[in-house]
Structure to design on (213 residues):
């Protein structure tokens, strides 16, 4: 599903070169739930962004479903990302002036499309958000915000979910809900790669990896 061969990233910062990620190899199969650990600054987010077709590595090869994603042009790569990958971040990144429904449907051009409307309804019910559909992010708890971000990422049922510290701002019960949801998703054939500092999150994963640089 995801294959990294000797992938590295060197950031140029003023006159300096920062080796953020050094020659990482990774093979992730469909249905696996990976937890990526590593100390602060070890390159976890950098790795996730390269897998997510958002950051070109300085060297190495990133393949998703046997496709070398950095040989695609920008438009093809953006389309590939939209079709195949869902993102969840610690900071949620919800649009403040849109309500829950609109945030979940943000990437859909036709928000009246019946398929997406029914997918949105079923996700919000599953995630206990059905009574909050007209709330704006400032009117939600942290756990609810993360569940909205989760619903947004899941709307198109992407094959691959990338999660960067998805429980970083949540209490134990809300963390458990998010991790359980991601685990159930992998049991139904989805694939999840999650960066986390939270050691208890590793218990939900099928595979763990520790990176250092
Ligand atoms: N755009 C950038 N330009 C220059 N250096 C960067 C850039 N982005 C990240 N870095 C540096 O690259 C290194 C790896 O960063 P990254 O965010 O991938 O680490 P991380 O393991 O996710 O850290 P944390 O756990 O603290 O979130 C860090 O030393 C960081 O300062």
């Amino acid at each position: 599903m995801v294959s990294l061969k000797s992938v590295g990233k060197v950031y140029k910062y003023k006159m300096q070169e920062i080796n953020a990620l050094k020659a990482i190899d990774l093979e992730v199969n469909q249905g696996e739930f990976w937890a990526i650990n590593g100390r602060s600054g070890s390159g976890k987010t950098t790795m996730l962004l390269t897998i997510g077709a958002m950051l070109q590595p300085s060297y190495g090869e990133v393949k998703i479903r046997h496709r070398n994603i950095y040989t695609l042009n920008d438009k093809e790569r953006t389309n590939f990302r939209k079709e195949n990958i869902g993102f969840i971040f610690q900071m949620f990144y919800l649009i403040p002036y849109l309500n829950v429904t609109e945030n979940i449907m943000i990437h859909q051009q036709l928000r009246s499309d019946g398929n997406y409307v029914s997918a949105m309804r079923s996700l919000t019910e599953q995630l206990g958000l059905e009574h909050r559909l007209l709330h704006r992010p400032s009117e939600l708890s942290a756990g609810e915000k993360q569940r909205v971000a989760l619903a947004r990422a899941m709307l198109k049922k992407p094959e691959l979910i990338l999660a960067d510290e998805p429980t970083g701002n949540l209490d134990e019960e809300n963390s458990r809900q998010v991790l359980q949801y991601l685990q159930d998703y992998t049991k139904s054939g989805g694939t999840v790669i999650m960066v986390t500092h939270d050691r208890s999150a590793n218990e939900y994963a099928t595979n763990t990896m520790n990176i250092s640089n």
